[in-house]
Amino acid sequence: MFQKNAWYVAATPDEIDGKPLGRKICNEQIVFYRGPDGKPVALDDYCPHRGAPLSLGKVESGKLICGYHGLGMGSEGKAVSMPGQRVSGFPCVQSYPVEERYGFIWVWPGDKDKADPELIHKLHWADNPDWAYGGGLYHFNCDYRFVIDNLMDLTHETYLHPTSIGQREIEEVPPTSRMENGSAITSRFMHNIMAPPFWKAALRGNNLKDDVPVDRWQICRFFPPSHVMIDVGVAHAGHGGFEADPAHKVSSVVVDFITPETETSTWYFWGMARNFNARDQGLTDQITSNLSKVFLEDKEMLERQQVNVERTRRPLLSLNIDGGGMHARKIIDQLVSEEQSTS
Amino acid sequence: MFQKNAWYVAATPDEIDGKPLGRKICNEQIVFYRGPDGKPVALDDYCPHRGAPLSLGKVESGKLICGYHGLGMGSEGKAVSMPGQRVSGFPCVQSYPVEERYGFIWVWPGDKDKADPELIHKLHWADNPDWAYGGGLYHFNCDYRFVIDNLMDLTHETYLHPTSIGQREIEEVPPTSRMENGSAITSRFMHNIMAPPFWKAALRGNNLKDDVPVDRWQICRFFPPSHVMIDVGVAHAGHGGFEADPAHKVSSVVVDFITPETETSTWYFWGMARNFNARDQGLTDQITSNLSKVFLEDKEMLERQQVNVERTRRPLLSLNIDGGGMHARKIIDQLVSEEQSTS
Amino acid sequence: MFQKNAWYVAATPDEIDGKPLGRKICNEQIVFYRGPDGKPVALDDYCPHRGAPLSLGKVESGKLICGYHGLGMGSEGKAVSMPGQRVSGFPCVQSYPVEERYGFIWVWPGDKDKADPELIHKLHWADNPDWAYGGGLYHFNCDYRFVIDNLMDLTHETYLHPTSIGQREIEEVPPTSRMENGSAITSRFMHNIMAPPFWKAALRGNNLKDDVPVDRWQICRFFPPSHVMIDVGVAHAGHGGFEADPAHKVSSVVVDFITPETETSTWYFWGMARNFNARDQGLTDQITSNLSKVFLEDKEMLERQQVNVERTRRPLLSLNIDGGGMHARKIIDQLVSEEQSTS
């Protein structure tokens, strides 16, 4: 239950530097590598000769060489060379539209003709020297929609992440959710509270006092097919919160690309973009390390939720706090339904 | 193929002290914890909000708090609290009759209305200071009836446990089996033999000579749904065997609660109760350690038997030595059949 | 998709010395052991009493004793003893024709009446003191025919084994394939090339110069049901190659018994027989160690090929280089088809 005609984050650039990468995206088994011009290529990970995975091969001058018998693949999915063989009659393998943008490799697993690079989700902070980004990749054995639900309802931070970003005050302020231009938004604003450990560290990282009351915000935005961007931060209380002058706040974006591997497994690209102290790589590393622990706490819960929901097949409750996830699922349902009716 | 309307041992008390325990019993996925009065509670391990396993949560003042979004469950399976939510309309989850008795947590996975605590199997030695008990828990990947067969035919000790409790003389004395009051009994009495290593150690543990001939007994009793209690011991030869004066013997009960997890997997609670030198905790620990090795030898054999029987689906032979297990299976068949015809 | 009426290598003699061995061959779960005369016996690995795997038992004076309750099996699959039991009425288990020959244990998993030991594949070099043999056993999770394809097309050495036996010149010389007397043959002859590392070491092992041009040969022969014997070697260039006088060459046979475990898994007995410096055990050990690394490189490729082919179910290409494997598959298809039409 996911869109095929959409741009998904499939990898980070370092994963395809110098060698091919095999990865399943939306049930498509794909090999990613850099072609002759250095641009990423995405093909069915299947050698048309004897079915070997091309990702076990190597890349020579932008040509993907099968590691079994040396068949060379061109970036269109056509065999272009093989020692002692004429390859012009070989069957082609599928190629996938793929782009490198904003520090990610994006793939379009569906109908090639509809793949317009302009549809790639815009990241205003990427390629901007005033912003820094750090992140990682986790594999979750669960439906990607459980990850979206998780990120569109941060109430869970109180319970699942009590030592980092969770605090009692989160659940005391009800969130508000709405749909807007085909995206779903859930916001929560907390006033005059003490920052939890993760944000105390961030305040110190921006040379701000961490022992005074703050205003805290969480503005979660779901964008199809499965991205969640969350404006998060704290400002010294009374300075305007989210709108406060940069001198009084630490403000960042939790970046979540939640790419289905199969119906019940997910590649979760997580990270944080920030525009304070952006040139401090040590701070980036520290924040990334802290985040990696937070998102690992989600992994066990979501994988066990998957097992439990498969076991019972009961409908889930949808409370006020689940509004953001509900909106997101409505958007997904609508887009998948449209996609299926036109194919 | 097991009774649902019966009391099974599900856990030991230490397993639910201070935290919830998730465990599948007779195909029911259950969370066990201590309620407000300290008494055990057993619920479907499923949060009615979003399906998270409640066993990943925590217990606060006897209320089970879901670890995902903080829903609080009462001991009847009804949500009783959730931050910022009215929970009165939430669907309930199933609760199971559960009792703490004799040092075990007992659960009734079937029809709640039929769960009478008086039906819990009596353990005459429990809560008696003249007796000591030590035991453990193993998970076996086999049908629980293979464990019952194993314990109702101790001929296997000669082959599977040759360095501890096995000896040639076991197979030289044919056992006798019978049914009695809805239980199955198999007995074997050996006279004027040398004790095997396990029993030599027990004799020394009771300050008795271990290098003189003994009389040895094994009286296996199966009680539904799946408990096996075995009177075992040795007495210096000629003093009356099982009936000998305590001054001349070491006498104990092998305690086996064989609780189905699924049709093909089993929670095996094993242990030994003894009424010699009962206050010697070091002796209890030593006996428990020795037993843990013995029952581990059964694990590989029974799990491989399960695989082999599934592979061939041939009928098993039933010899004289298998009489106890056959009686036990007849009792089980009868009870399951009755249960199914009335439900 | 394999012959049942054929002799397969099932084990090496050391594997059944002193203890039974459980191994699945062509979907038959078999226990191998040495009977009263020291000759190998092969039976269904199933105790007729309670279904325990007989391979968990032990062998006493050539009688297989079940490790659970002591049932003794005779080499015809008939129970011959059990403590305190008459066994004459016990059901028999299947026995399989089995032979020890040429340093291997051979089994016939099909129709017993057709098992003629004269049909065992002849190994001219075995039991010949002028020849030495060293080998090993790997378990591959793939269809055995992928291993045959691999060995009947050594083009892959260039890509999969570049640091040992692979070299560019292999793919510059097209192989020739043909069928002959129910076997398939693929040959490749390379002239005036430098030897790759594996063969340089072999030249030194035969006290020959390794830094001069050589002629190299590869003559792969497939014999049903699934054996591949490959004449391989190098001779100093210009001395006649394969036909050169022993003083100028290193010549050996790659020995491959590719025994199906199931349709998608394989016991791969690999090794090398050589007739130079045959009494040098250190050389045998070194060659065997080098080969073990080579064949491990095939394992990952073939297991991933299996997954990929199962995923896509597309037909494989058959190029000139695949001729040997194609002939082998034709022979297999023919024999399996004959077998099925007469059964």
Give a description of the structure:
Three copies of one chain form a homotrimer. The model of chain A has no long low-confidence stretch (mean pLDDT 96). Chain A is globular, with a radius of gyration of 22 Å. Chain A is 22% helix and 32% strand. Chain A has six helices and 18 strands. In chain A, the strands form four sheets. Chain A has a seven-stranded antiparallel beta sheet with strand order 12-18-17-16-15-14-13. Chain A has helices spanning 144-152, 157-160, 169-172, 197-205, 281-312, 323-341, and strands spanning 8-11, 21-25, 28-34, 40-44, 58-60, 63-65, 72-73, 79-81, 95-96, 98-101, 104-107, 132-140, 176-180, 183-193, 214-223, 227-236, 249-262, 265-274. With 343 residues, chain A is an alpha+beta fold. Chains in contact: A-B, A-C, B-C. Chains A, B, C: This is Rieske (2Fe-2S) protein. Chains A, B, C: It comes from Neopusillimonas maritima.
Short description:
Chain A has 343 residues and is of the alpha+beta class. Helix content of chain A is 22%, strand content 32%. The longest helix of chain A is centred in the last third of the chain and has 32 residues, at 281-312.
Features:
2 domains, alpha+beta, homotrimer, Naphthalene 1,2-dioxygenase Alpha Subunit, Chain A, domain 1, four-stranded antiparallel β-sheet
Q: Topology of this structure?
A:
The structure is a homotrimer of 343-residue chains.
Chain A lengths: L7 E4 L9 E5 L2 E7 L5 E5 L13 E3 L2 E3 L6 E2 L5 E3 L13 E2 L1 E4 L2 E4 L24 E9 L3 H9 L4 H4 L8 H4 L3 E5 L2 E11 L3 H9 L8 E10 L3 E10 L12 E14 L2 E10 L6 H32 L10 H19 L2
Antiparallel strand pairs in A: 1-11, 2-3, 3-4, 4-9, 5-6, 6-7, 7-8, 10-11, 12-18, 13-14, 14-15, 15-16, 16-17, 17-18
